[in-house]
Amino acid sequence: MNDSNDTLEHDETTGHASHDHDHDHAGHDHDEHVHHLSLDVEVTDVGPCRKHVRVRIPEADVNHMREHAIEEVATTAAVPGFRVGHVPKKLLQKRFKDELSSQLKQKLLMESMEQLAQENELDPINEPDIDVATLDVPETGDFQYEFDVEVRPEFSVPAYEGLTITKPVREISETDIDEYLNRYLSQYSQRIESEVPAVNDDFLVLEARFTHQGKELKQMERLTVRLKPVLRFQDAEIEQFGELLSGTQVGDERDVKLKVSLEAEDIAMRGEEIDGHFKVLEVRGLRVPELTPEFLERIGYESIEQLRDEIRQMLERQLTFEQRQSARSQVLEKITDSAQWELPEQLVLKHVENALRREILEMQQAGYTTEQIRARENEMRQQAVTTTRQALKEHFVLDKVATTENIGVTHADIDIEIRLMAQQRGENPRRVRARLQKTGMIENLEAQIRERKAIDAILDRAVFEEVPAEKPQEDRISAIAMSICGGTTVVSPNDDSDDDNDE
After folding, report:
1. What are the C-alpha distances in Å from 425 to residues 243, 291, 298, 494?
2. CATH T-level assignment (fold) for domain 190-287
3. What phi and psi values does residue 377 have, to the nearest 5 degrees?
4. Residue 1's Cα: distance from chain center in Å?
């Protein structure tokens, strides 16, 4: 809605409609005048989660609001030859015709939309689609306008009492800590030129070129990647990347065929086979730093024992994250079985970036590395529509559970989450909060906490069966924050990647 966004506001966090004005109209800045309109409202379904609303304001109400608008102008209008407040009404109407018309339209829209929101359970997801500039209030007769609006799906809260949930459990071993410590130290490792053939975890500087039917899609003169079994872009991946580049040296060239994701942003390229060509420019190994007292002090630890204790806590948080994700998946699978309502593709596409931000935020809170987060981001981008559609359904169901359970989010809840994130990243909490606010992710954090509380409410009533957790998979993916068929798009607000595209 172009010119009256303060009449019906959408809460991006929960999807509920909210109002800038108190419902009793006390203390309205825009108008202390109270007049109940005799609205004639017709609401019809025009598609999944979409309503068409037609509003008619009777001529009597229009005239009443017009008179009030004239009275307001009369109290301040300065017209030569007349004292303020004593200008004839007909002269005011003629001299201030455009101003009065605009003010009347705004008042009618604001008052009618506010009353409409109170009297009709539309529950909008986005702003109403109204082109205010095309609307005119007639000199005589009723004022009518209409609009389409996306609304939350209508459904009953599914039963969630006494669900049976399996809980994966495992002990954090010293070997687990060693493996994580090696990944952690790689952030501080020096990259040194290697004269031996490339092996897993080396860094390769590549000249890369991708084409489709002879037409160039993307060329990168110096692409730095870590050699792992899989190379994942935001819209495609090379499953045999490790096999393809292992054993290569400077000057070697390799060709590969790969398919673009079926849900890539570039619709025309979805599912298409493309050709990739790599030329090795440099091979770099890693020189891992020694855990000397000086190095430990530099990264903020007094001893190796303290560092290992911190890593154990991090791994325990990740296990908790995995358990929560497993429980969440089981809960959502059980309670969304009845969620057969459709979500329009346009709505899903609008929320793709939002779903990605929330997933990244959860992984940051659990202490995953930038490389692991980027790999997950690229995986989600390759399945963007399907993933987001399911995430939206889950959000709507959990939001309804949260409403049923009267679940809210306090400032203290948000402060605790921000402190945890800051601790895991070694940053100042104020800096983390500022970044979340700047990127718009503070609202995602609030919604995430509310949904987590809703799941906890369900789990409090669930029956748990412990099962052995699978051993965490080897870190097999090197992820590039870039699409082959499009521009670079990095969702993570905390991407620590360097110019070489990798850690």
Report:
1. 33, 20, 15, 9
2. Chitinase A; domain 3 (3.10.50)
3. -60, -45
4. 22
Residues of the chain with CATH 3.10.50.40: 190-287
Could you give the C-alpha distances from 47 to 50, 52, 120, 492, in angstroms and in order?
Answer: 5, 9, 18, 33
List the beta strands (DSSP E) in 29-104: 40-47, 50-57
The tokens for 485 are 């068929």
Q: Which residue has the tokens 């792992």?
A: 228
Helix (H) or strand (E) holding 146: strand 143-150
Q: Is 17 within 8 Å of 124 (Cβ atoms)?
A: yes
Residue 260 neighbours by CB distance under 10 Å = 24
What would the CATH number be for the domain defined by 164-181+294-472?
1.10.3120
Q: Which two tokens stand for residue 14?
A: 């929960």
Give, in order, the Cα–Cα distances in Å from 217 to each of 158, 205, 278, 381, 467.
47, 20, 14, 18, 47
The pLDDT of 383-395, averaged and rounded, is 75
d(CA 465, CA 332): 17
pLDDT band at 358 (very low <50, low <70, confident <90, very high): low
* Burial class, 235, CB count within 10 angstroms (exposed 0-12 / middle 13-18 / buried 19+): buried
Give the Cα separation of 7 and 122 in Å (integer): 14
Q: Where in the sequence of the chain do the CATH 3.30.70.1050 domains occur? A: 9-150
Token couple for 83:
């004292």
CATH 1.10.3120 intervals, the chain: 164-181+294-472
Pick the CATH number of 9-150 from 2.40.50.100, 3.30.70.1050, 3.40.50.10140, 3.30.70.120: 3.30.70.1050
* CA distance linking residue 360 with residue 375, whole number of Å: 10
Nearest to 357 by CA among 334, 376, 336, 383: 376
Least confident piece of the model among 10-24, 170-184, 262-276, 283-297: 10-24
173 token code pair = 């071993």
Q: Is the pTM of this model over 0.70?
A: no
With vertex at residue 24, the alpha carbon angle to CA 23 and CA 27, rounded to the nearest 5 degrees, is 100
**229-253 mean pLDDT:** 94
